[in-house]
Amino acid sequence: MTAPVDIQNLSITFGTGPGAVKVLPSVSFAVAAGECFGLVGESGSGKSTVLRCVSLLTDIWTGTVKIAGKDVRSLPLRERCRLVQMVFQDPYGSLHPRQSVRTVLSEPLRIHGIGDRDARMRQALVDVGLPVDFLDRFPHQLSGGQRQRVAIARALILEPSVLLLDEPTSALDVSVQAEILNLLARLRELRGFTYIMVTHDLAVVDHMCDRFAVMQHGTITETLPRAAIAGNLATHPYARELIGASLEYEGHGRG
Ligand SMILES: Nc1ncnc2c1ncn2[C@@H]1O[C@H](COP(=O)(O)OP(=O)(O)OP(=O)(O)O)[C@@H](O)[C@H]1O
């Protein structure tokens, strides 16, 4: 099942009093069901915070976030977990070192009272391209790419409609990054997932996303289709600068 995401006037302030910082003044965007939407922009512009708000990892925000037309705040935790899951940047930090892959994958199934666990866990590993005997491995027995595959399997095992991807490949070796991106692209094609993907890499957007938003200081400066990258069709000065710098870097890289 695939689902649209609608974010309206999302705003968050960290801290109180004179030290309070409005990290997101007001962010609005909509992502169609099955679309891959990128969030790019300078470090500290609030990209990860948007994902943390949507997933309710942070809940002190105001505004409205709807997934499949349902307000995420009014959804019971279980239902929310079955609609939306998040994959983090650092597969080393996101897996508990003392938990086997079996424990990592069985926990959500147990919490949600889902039966047939063994078959589901095996299928999840097959889906992410890992051998089923990896169920008995621990994180230190896995490569970075294999760990990220396990993290993706954990996100998939409840069969969500929306995946929030927070720089899912930036902690990985360049050679492994493409494998994980291809896996994510294939899964979206097969399952119709909606992706919201934070990245600092416009080459990733170009490879994966249908559209993307350029963020600066907690604000979306411009939303563009992927096709706008090649000819730098952005009109906002910051978006133009970001895309221009990326094209220049890519040009030098190839030259
Ligand atoms: N829990 C928090 N308390 C206080 N400030 C926070 C908190 N979480 C994030 N921030 C601040 O919000 C701003 C945006 O952070 P965020 O991680 O969303 O940026 P980002 O665009 O994802 O950056 P990067 O590309 O470096 O990951 C930063 O200035 C950060 O310090």
TrEMBL record:
Family label: Belongs to the ABC transporter superfamily.
Which key words are in the record? Answer: ATP-binding, Nucleotide-binding, Transport
* The UniProt record lists the keyword Transport: yes
Q: Tell me the SMART domains matching this sequence.
A: AAA
Residue stretches making up the ABC transporter domain:
5-242
Output one GO BP term: transmembrane transport
GO terms, molecular function: ATP binding; ATP hydrolysis activity
**Protein name as it appears in the record:** ABC transporter ATP-binding protein
Task: Please report a single Pfam family linked to this protein.
Answer: ABC_tran
